[in-house]
Design goal:
The complex is a heterodimer of chains A (86) and B (350). Chain A is of the alpha+beta class and 86 residues long. Chain A contains 3 helices and 3 strands; from the N terminus they run βββααα. Classes of the chains: A alpha+beta (86), B alpha+beta (350).
Chain lengths: 86, 350
């Protein structure tokens, strides 16, 4: 899964989608995950990093991670969600 | 440092009710021009248009006759105003007055040396709300299904062609969403009493409201275009807050339309973007929108470009604009002395 290339992220967790004008705020973990996705890291890379850095288990990560990905997709922040027309 | 050229510009649209006129934002843009030192002559229709009393923006205001008085009456008034003010450029900002100004454009230039940069009569007429479906076909742009109605008797049969909700629109202004035939009848009566017939019935399209403020050079080139997503929308459907966006589809649509129509002057495209990513053009306004100052904030001073075009200067198209800039509108109560109100009401000048 690839995030839209032009998403703007700030250190405060503010996410801006310049193609739609939508903006969101996320917590520090969400921001970390979005940054890793933008860098092209796979879900396995992200999982390994989160499990190594934070006190969480495999099952909790999987549940929360895929919830988060669904949310990103729903909010149209994923590449391919928008069609180029004309 | 470039020495600014002194110039007198007359501007209409000084009103600011819940559907604000573009005059004041156009003036703000002109006052910030890096090329012109502008003296603004306000042209007002009513004594309570707030721009009349904004002396930091408007140097002198004259009342002008309502569009219904016709072009000869308007020309007579402009002759007088010009004899005092020596106007270089006029920027009309109301749809309803444009017909007269377009008709007078050549005479204004020839007799009074006043420049304008307006759409041609054909461009103006062709994009009327009532002609929009044909316009869409001609310029290959999606338009929501629309129909003109002339009587309340036509309302019951609308269910054969439309799925509720519908949008009921006046030929110049006003649009209301109707969920039942009874609501269509109410809006029909209200809108036809104000703006006349026909009334336009348009299929409601669900989606995000996005607009573009743009300017065409009359040869098919887009001099500037800034797309905006409405962030906060009033009961009248006006953007009270908006954000500039990076939407290539919207820009392509604008460039294509300006190229195909050879649009001359300022314009606003009102578009609905559906969740499927389709773009439906719902309206073309033949002048700058009230939010045009956002374009200035994004690095494209469209009113300044229009003045340069009106003066016959060659203007290079803007190549970029800032993305993610917001406008947040506010209202401001000015305290006005009765003397000023009296002066504009009785003498027609302030």
């Amino acid at each position: 899964m690839k995030l839209k290339k032009n998403l703007a992220l700030s250190d405060s967790g503010f996410v801006f989608d310049p193609s739609t004008g939508d903006s969101f705020s996320t917590n520090p973990i969400g921001l970390e995950i979005i940054r890793m996705l933008k860098e092209g890291k796979t879900s396995n890379d992200i999982k390994a990093h989160i499990l190594k850095t934070y006190m969480t288990d495999d099952a909790s990560f999987e549940k929360d991670f895929y919830d988060f990905i669904n949310m990103l997709t729903k909010h149209n922040l994923v590449e391919g969600g928008e069609k180029e027309k004309n | 440092m470039v020495k600014k050229k002194k110039i007198n510009i007359a501007v209409t649209g000084l009103n600011a009710i819940d559907s604000p006129g573009p005059g004041v934002p156009v003036i703000r843009a002109l006052k910030e021009s890096k090329l012109f030192d502008v003296r603004i002559i306000g042209l007002s229709y009513e004594s309570l248009e707030p721009g009349i009393y904004m002396h930091n923006l408007v140097d002198k205001t004259y009342q002008v006759p309502l569009p219904s008085a016709g072009k000869a009456t308007l020309m007579e008034r402009l002759r007088y105003i010009n004899s005092v003010e020596k106007i270089d450029v006029i920027i009309p900002n109301f749809d309803a007055e444009l017909f007269n100004f377009i008709k007078l454009a050549d005479t204004l230039k020839k007799d009074l040396k006043i420049n304008t940069f307006l759409p041609t009569l054909e461009q103006f007429e062709e994009r009327h709300k009532s002609n929009l479906p044909e316009y869409g076909k001609k310029h290959k742009i999606k338009i929501p299904y629309s129909k003109l109605i002339f009587s309340v008797k036509e309302i019951p049969s609308l269910t054969n062609e439309f799925i509720y909700p519908l949008v009921v629109k006046g030929k110049f202004y006003d649009a209301s969403i109707a969920y039942t035939p009874e609501q269509v009848a109410t809006y029909f009566n209200k809108i036809s009493a104000k703006w006349g017939l026909p009334v336009i019935i348009q299929q409601f399209v669900h989606g995000q409201e996005v607009n573009v403020t743009a300017i065409g050079d009359g040869k098919g080139n887009t001099i500037g275009a800034v797309p905006m997503r409405k962030q906060y929308i009033t009961d009248k459907g006006k953007a009270w807050s908006g954000i500039s966006i990076d939407d290539k589809n919207l820009l392509n649509m604008t460039h294509k339309l300006i190229k195909s129509t050879k649009w001359k002057g300022g314009m606003e495209l009102e578009i609905i973007k559906t969740s499927e990513g389709d773009y439906y053009l719902i309206e073309i306004n033949p002048r700058f929108p009230a939010w045009v100052y956002l374009a200035v904030g994004c690095g494209q001073n469209h009113p300044e470009a229009l003045v340069r075009l009106a003066l016959g200067e060659k203007v290079e198209p803007f190549k970029k604009y800032d993305i993610g800039k917001l406008f947040v509108r506010y209202s401001w109560d000015m305290i006005v002395n009765l003397k000023e109100f009296e002066k504009i009401s009785t003498l027609g000048e302030l």
